[in-house]
Amino acid sequence: MELNERVRTFTSDTLGSMGLNLDVAVNDTADGIRVEISGEGGEALLRRRAEALDALQVIVNTAFRRELTDDRSFTVDCLDYRKGKDEELRQMTRFTMDRVKTNRAQQEMGPLNPYARRIVHITVAEDAALASESIGDAFLKTVIISLRR
Which domains does the chain have, with CATH numbers? Predict the structure, then answer.
């Protein structure tokens, strides 16, 4: 069975174990593999700041990341929640980048989970004058944005 189909089945079965009967689609993108969840009752994954959605994303990545031949990862989204939050995070990162340039002093963002940190690092990398670094030794880490030396 193809990887995307196995991921779809695994995600669907996991949701079923949670008592949720939702539609699951898996799509390849340039950034990674998106697992799109939709259907009535999907809001259950978005309660408490989408903790269940984040947990499901960690589970899917843990189960299948080693099968990917590149540095992509799996993004699990439900009812386009993550798309909106990702864009919000990119805008906040750009605002913080502008503050670094204006104040000429480093700025902190976080604490952030690995998925959010990746978005911040990719956004900062678009500007050659700036650098970013994760600090901390826990699951949630802080990202420092500074002028490139």
Answer: 3-79 (3.30.300.20), 84-147 (3.30.1370.50)
Rounded CA separation 131/128 (Å): 8
Q: What is the pTM of this model?
A: 0.81
User: For residue range 115-137, what is the model confidence (pLDDT) as tens digits?
Assistant: 899 999 999 999 999 999 999 98
Alpha-carbon span 63 to 61, nearest angstrom: 5
Cross-strand pairs, 35: 26, 76
**Distance of alpha carbon 21 from alpha carbon 40, whole angstroms:** 8
Within 69-106, strands assigned E span 73-78
C-alpha to C-alpha distances, 134 to 33, 59, 62, nearest whole angstrom: 24, 23, 21
